[in-house]
Amino acid sequence: MVRTKRILTPKERSIQGAFLSSLDVRECCTKKPVVVAIIGVVGSGKSSVAHELAKHLKATIVENDAIRIELRKQGESYDRVWAIAENVAVEVIKLGGNVILDSDFVDEKKRASLREKVRKVGARLVFVRTHCDFDVMSERIRTNDPGEFFNDAGSLSKASDNGKDVKMRELLRRIPFHYRWLNQGVGKWVLKKFPFAIFAEIDTTNSEKWKDEVAECSEKLIGE
Q1: Taking Cα atoms as reference points, which of 196, 206, 155, 220 lies closest to residue 48?
Q2: Is the whole model's pTM more than 0.90, yes or no?
Q3: CA–CA separation, 166 vs 168, rounded Å?
Q4: Are 194 and 131 in contact, with CB atoms under 8 Å apart?
Q5: pLDDT tens digits for 92-110?
Q6: I need a surface site. Which of 31, 46, 127, 147 has the fewest CB within 10 A?
């Protein structure tokens, strides 16, 4: 497959360098460097799982929304946020660390691009899926602070907390990639099966149990 090389602008290169410099890279505790790519919709617990995994794996989190915030501040588009995230992940691996990519890797082209870059630096790539009961995801969006990225996004909503409306819009946009509607009884959203390997699935619906699932996932990664 022929890939078009994504060349960063001077501002994008500057943002990439500053973002990398801001990260705390710790020596990996796995037999081989690991890149964990998270898959899940808004409100499914991606960031919470990423931070919990990072504790166990001594990993560095690369958060795409944090990169988007810096791009927005510099008046740059989000077109190359994935390229920046991948480049930063590669540099962290070269520095001897593990990486957790806090974003949604449901897109096939993005997974393929990441696989290629991770393979070249001799690291291991695994996908961890986060999911949650739909009503709980909706509750999280309604009750939690949406965060800087969503709070400062454009919206026609006149609500003082319209970042929640933006976040709900993003959830609804991505639902079809992750769930299908089962029209039985009152109906419900059920997870789609992906045509690629998932290392672990973390159900964050129950706040008392999901950390145990993360611990089990981490033990497997450290032991293999």
Answers
A1: 206
A2: yes
A3: 5
A4: no
A5: 999 999 999 999 999 999 9
A6: 31
